[in-house]
Amino acid sequence: MLWVPLEWSPLNMPSVGDYFHMAYNVITPFCLLKLLERCPRKLPLGSSVIYLAVIFFVMGASLHLVGDSVNHRLIHSGYQNHLSVRDNPIMQNLQPKSLVDSFELLYYYDEYLGHLMWYIPFFLCLVLYFGGCFVPDKGRSGSMPVSAWILTVVSAVYNWYLVTEGQIFPLFLTSYALMLLIVQYNRRYGEVPDVNGYFMLYSFGLTLVLVVTWVGYLWNDPALRVRYPSLIYVPEPWAYYSLYVAGR
């Protein structure tokens, strides 16, 4: 957390945000297991697959925790998130030059391997749970209490951050498409999502709207276009912060 004074968390110690991330790495897998245990239907995959998914989730999130912690500490030393590791000015002054390779390895563990091991099991668990959230259609499909709609907005904003910062738009879109296919499949048998199912469906739909809006807002940004040259252009919020907010 960049707004917390450095005196509270020196650069050679975990930051306040790191402790929140540690709590996330413990609480979230526990909640996923309890969520899947209470799934209204028996899950199509055995419990062993679920346990393996959660184990991979914890390992991936932990890899990300270490890499993200170092990355955020480097920001205090002048590291710029909108540039690649090798193009950062502070990296160009490192001696010996082979140290840059070590930081690129750290970036790989954080942004690639860590994200894949974190998010694939996470969305797999969510899609599996969604597949069990169906009830016979009684003509009240789509209705949710006000509190659920408020949580839908909160969940969508959180998912937007995961998708953009985690660079997992293809994975998210695949998960959302699978959820829509599951809905169509169950409608053939006269079943519709229950309140939990509609909550997930609406939050994913709103997340897609937020991501598309974010991409549209930054579509013609020349600096971010250089940073994200691939076919799927989804800039990271931290890169935007580093480019337009941190320097003010």
Structural description of this entry:
With 248 residues, the chain is an all-alpha fold. It has 9 helices and 2 strands. It has helices spanning 16-37, 47-75, 89-92, 98-131, 146-166, 169-187, 195-217, 222-227, 237-245; strands spanning 134-136, 191-193. Strands 1-2 form a two-stranded antiparallel sheet. The longest helix is centred in the middle third of the chain and has 34 residues, at 98-131. The protein is elongated, with a radius of gyration of 20 Å. The model has no long low-confidence stretch (mean pLDDT 88).
What is the N-to-C succession of helices and strands? HHHHEHHEHHH
Shape type: elongated
Rg from alpha-carbon coordinates: 20 Å
Q: Assign a percent range to the helix content.
A: 55-70%
Total of DSSP H or I helical runs spanning 4+ residues: 9
Short description:
The protein has 248 residues and is mainly α.
Keywords:
248 residues; mainly alpha; two-stranded antiparallel ribbon; 2% strand
Strand and helix layout:
Blueprint: H1 16-37, H2 47-75, H3 89-92, H4 98-131, E1 134-136, H5 146-166, H6 169-187, E2 191-193, H7 195-217, H8 222-227, H9 237-245
